[in-house]
Specification:
With about 250 residues, the chain is an alpha/beta fold. The chain contains eleven helices and seven strands.
């Protein structure tokens, strides 16, 4: 399946909680300021902009599989940032990079074996991977509401039998996968973040329920989101479970 496209403008307006989590991840990456770092799944470039500030003598490569996200990132980021539209499962770099950072992206990719192999091959020997994505149990209540609506008419015609496209993994299997691929100094763990949402319909439509909506005719989008808001209530607290990853590429 090709990478999901997004409503980049709405995501940019409402994604401050995602950005805050991403900033926390970014500070785990120790930098001298002259490295080359790849942002894998840059979105609209919120976190990438902070990364670029920390690399005054270095280089930032920002990659996203969504044409809309890449275009928005290219518009918002300095010209010094090399924004590329690439599928991470086919990631290719001209020269290996010192580090890869990624936030809120890996759970959209079904094949983690191939993903981490491509990232490993893009890193210099001993290069660092610092990442966070949705973990096992992430946004469980929102998913439950979405699948409950998937059985209702008129949505069931389009969603019946669809099981979701998220890949929410637990720390232990991820550690084992990375180790098997040759990564060293692997550390994986889970954190939980409660996000209070005021614009519930906007947030659900732009971020949490997008996978349902892209399978529905546009005429049904508002109705689906409105019924989800009825099920979940407003204002809403969304429970995020985050899978955190630190690792190094093999030295040889």
């Amino acid at each position: 399946m090709s990478p999901r496209d997004w409503d980049a403008a709405t995501y940019q307006r409402l994604s401050a909680p995602i950005e805050a989590m991403g900033r926390d991840v970014l500070w785990r990456l120790r930098l001298e300021g002259d490295e080359t770092v790849l942002d894998a799944g840059c979105g609209t470039g919120r976190v990438t902009a902070v990364l670029a500030e920390r690399l005054p003598r270095g280089k930032v490569i920002a990659v996203d599989g969504s044409p809309a996200m890449a275009a928005e990132a290219r518009r918002r980021l300095p010209d010094s940032v090399d924004v590329q539209e690439q599928d991470l499962l086919e990631l290719a770099v001209e020269e290996p990079v010192d580090a890869i950072v990624s936030t809120a992206t890996f759970h959209w990719i079904g094949d983690h074996d191939r993903l981490f192999a491509r990232l490993r091959d893009a890193l210099k020997p001993g290069g660092r991977l610092v990442a966070q994505c949705g973990g096992e149990g992430n946004v469980a209540a929102v998913k439950q509401a979405g699948f409950a609506l998937a059985h209702r008419e008129p949505f069931s015609e389009h969603l019946e039998g669809w099981g979701g496209d998220w890949n929410f993994q637990a720390p232990k299997p991820t550690e084992e996968r990375l180790t098997k691929l040759g990564y060293t100094d692997v550390w994986t763990w889970e954190t939980r973040v409660a996000v209070d949402v005021e614009d519930v319909a906007g947030y659900l439509g732009a971020i949490c329920l997008g996978s349902f909506l892209e399978r529905l005719p546009e005429a049904l989008h508002d109705d689906f989101v409105d019924q989800a808001v009825e099920l979940l209530g407003a204002p809403l607290t969304i429970d995020y479970v985050r899978l955190n990853i630190l690792a190094r590429a093999p030295v040889s």
